[in-house]
């Protein structure tokens, strides 16, 4: 069997707000083991943002203020090889170096995936998926732009704060969007070239067929003329 890694990325600010709303309703990640290099992180390496059973009802400000919040730069962390930076042990290397290694690793892993899509481009994502794997969905995607995150109104200062907290995800998303649109344009171009090649082949077959018909008609006329001469 061949196994393929695929993923869907989302605009970092929308994704962050969506996770906050999810956590606010009582969701936790306690079942996540966060295993890296064969072990789970210690409580010192990965402290909890809340003391109770969950973090339900937390405000957006509380969500942003927790320095251990795994919602920050989640997409980079989940796509990168954490073992390159010592997993969750932040003392292995300087923060700036750690961030660069994680971002480079996430970009490389994303680039090497068989396919990735973007939530903000659902129809293009469907098109690329179908062309990549040569299979079609039963029904076309419907582009929904209304989500729980889109209903959250934030001011410019909060927007900038979220972008700052997710600066690695912001850079990864810019890279992903550029690569995604390049792949989409390439696939469309390839499809147009294939359609043009098929039309050229069809015209070539048609011209050959018409030539054979003309040749048969000319041969038939010559035969009839010679036959008539012999009879005359």
UniProtKB/TrEMBL annotation:
Residues 210-232 are annotated as: Disordered. Keywords: Glycoprotein, Membrane, Signal-anchor, Transferase, Transmembrane, Transmembrane helix. GO terms for molecular function: heparan sulfate 6-sulfotransferase activity. Its EC number is 2.8.2.-. It is an enzyme of class 2 (transferase). InterPro entries: Heparan_SO4-6-sulfoTrfase (IPR010635), P-loop_NTPase (IPR027417), Sulfotransferase (IPR005331). It is found in: Membrane. It is a single-pass type II membrane protein. One of its GO terms (cellular component) is membrane. It catalyses: alpha-D-glucosaminyl-[heparan sulfate](n) + 3'-phosphoadenylyl sulfate = 6-sulfo-alpha-D-glucosaminyl-[heparan sulfate](n) + adenosine 3',5'-bisphosphate + H(+). Transmembrane segments: none annotated. Belongs to the sulfotransferase 6 family. 6-O-sulfation enzyme which catalyzes the transfer of sulfate from 3'-phosphoadenosine 5'-phosphosulfate (PAPS) to position 6 of the N-sulfoglucosamine residue (GlcNS) of heparan sulfate. This is Heparan-sulfate 6-O-sulfotransferase. It comes from Mesitornis unicolor (brown roatelo).
């Amino acid at each position: 069997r061949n196994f393929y890694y695929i993923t869907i990325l989302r605009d970092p600010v929308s994704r962050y707000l969506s996770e906050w709303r999810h956590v606010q309703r009582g969701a936790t990640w306690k079942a996540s083991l966060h295993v890296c290099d064969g072990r789970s992180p210690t409580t010192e390496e990965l402290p909890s943002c809340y003391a109770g059973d969950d973090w339900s009802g937390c405000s957006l400000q509380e969500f942003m203020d927790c320095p251990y919040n795994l919602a920050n730069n989640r997409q980079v962390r989940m796509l990168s090889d954490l073992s390159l930076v010592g997993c969750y042990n932040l003392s292995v290397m300087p923060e700036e170096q750690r961030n660069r290694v994680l971002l480079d690793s996430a970009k490389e892993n994303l680039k090497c995936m068989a396919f990735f899509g973007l939530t903000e481009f659902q129809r293009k994502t469907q098109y690329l998926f179908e062309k990549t794997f040569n299979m079609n969905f039963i029904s076309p995607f419907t582009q929904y732009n209304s989500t729980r995150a889109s209903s959250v109104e934030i001011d410019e200062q909060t927007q900038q704060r979220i972008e700052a907290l997710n600066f690695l995800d912001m850079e990864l998303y810019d890279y992903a969007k550029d690569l995604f649109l390049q792949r989409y344009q390439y696939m469309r171009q390839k499809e147009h070239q294939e359609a043009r090649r098929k039309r050229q082949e069809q015209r070539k077959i048609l011209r050959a067929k018409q030539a054979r018909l003309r040749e048969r008609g000319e041969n038939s006329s010559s035969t009839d003329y010679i036959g008539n001469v012999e009879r005359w």
